[in-house]
Amino acid sequence: xxxxxxxxxxxxxxxxxxxxxxxxxxxxxxxxxxxxxxxxxxxxxxxxxxxxxxxxxxxxxxxxxxxxxxxxxxxxxxxxxxxxxxxxxxxxxxxxxxxxxxxxxxxxxxxxxxxxxxxxxxxxxxxxxxxxxxxxxxxxxxxxxxxxxxxxxxxxxxxxxxxxxxxxxxxxxxxxxxxxxxxxxxxxxxxxxxxxxxxxxxxxxxxxxxxxxxxxxxxxxxxxxxxxxxxxxxxxxxxxxxxxxxxxxxxxxx
Length: 254
Ligand SMILES: Nc1ncnc2c1ncn2[C@@H]1O[C@H](COP(=O)(O)OP(=O)(O)O)[C@@H](O)[C@H]1O
Ligand SMILES: [Mg+2]
Description:
Blueprint: E1 2-13, E2 16-27, E3 31-35, H1 42-49, E4 57-62, E5 65-66, H2 72-77, E6 80-82, H3 95-103, H4 109-138, H5 154-166, E7 172-176, H6 184-199, E8 203-207, H7 211-217, E9 220-225, E10 228-233, H8 235-240, H9 242-253
Parallel strand pairs: 3-8, 3-9, 6-7, 7-8
Antiparallel strand pairs: 1-2, 1-4, 4-5, 9-10
Helix pairs in contact: 3-4, 3-5
The structure holds adenosine-5'-diphosphate and magnesium ion.
């Protein structure tokens, strides 16, 4: 039932204790919200889960296997991926090429290519193209596949970031504020895509500040504060929790 397990994960940057022993589980097939005041450690935890940072202590277990300290591409190969903002350096690559690039990062690919030779490579290229089309259609990006990222809307960029992640065939997707800077109509559209992906079996952990959206999308909400787990439940339960209210107010007052 549990797909991702965060067990007493800690991390400090010099004197700053960004994670102070965070622990919680995420069940397979859920769309779970991860909320908490600014500085709570949400992004830092995502960086630990995805292999960007090595935790100072604790363990991260995915699909029954420890992944603590593995390199990001190894974690991706196991089916866990987070989205990243489109890098400026790739401004000359089309939307379609961005999708293809992520699809190429498959485990064992170069070995397979060496073994089966050119015919195999051509076949894989055709499969990759088909997969990129499927993802583009899936996210309604098929009409802009030839566009450059600089010429698409903020919402389409967010969808492309999600699309790239889908190209790696993930079991679980980590999203860090995917709606930031997106207009309200598209926010709802992206939300609908996330619900549809969940229905297809994807597990999603979503950091988001838009509380009405969290309430609409999420089965369950996990609250972090001061680098650790604070509360969980459905949205109305955690919103009514006085400790959660205080954690948010403390930041506003500070
Ligand atoms: N690279 C870093 N170097 C030093 N301190 C950091 C770094 N990244 C995050 N922090 C600190 O860690 C704490 C948690 O930050 P963060 O994970 O970004 O919180 P959230 O995403 O919940 O807003 C904050 O006090 C932040 O200032
Ligand atoms: Mg953050």
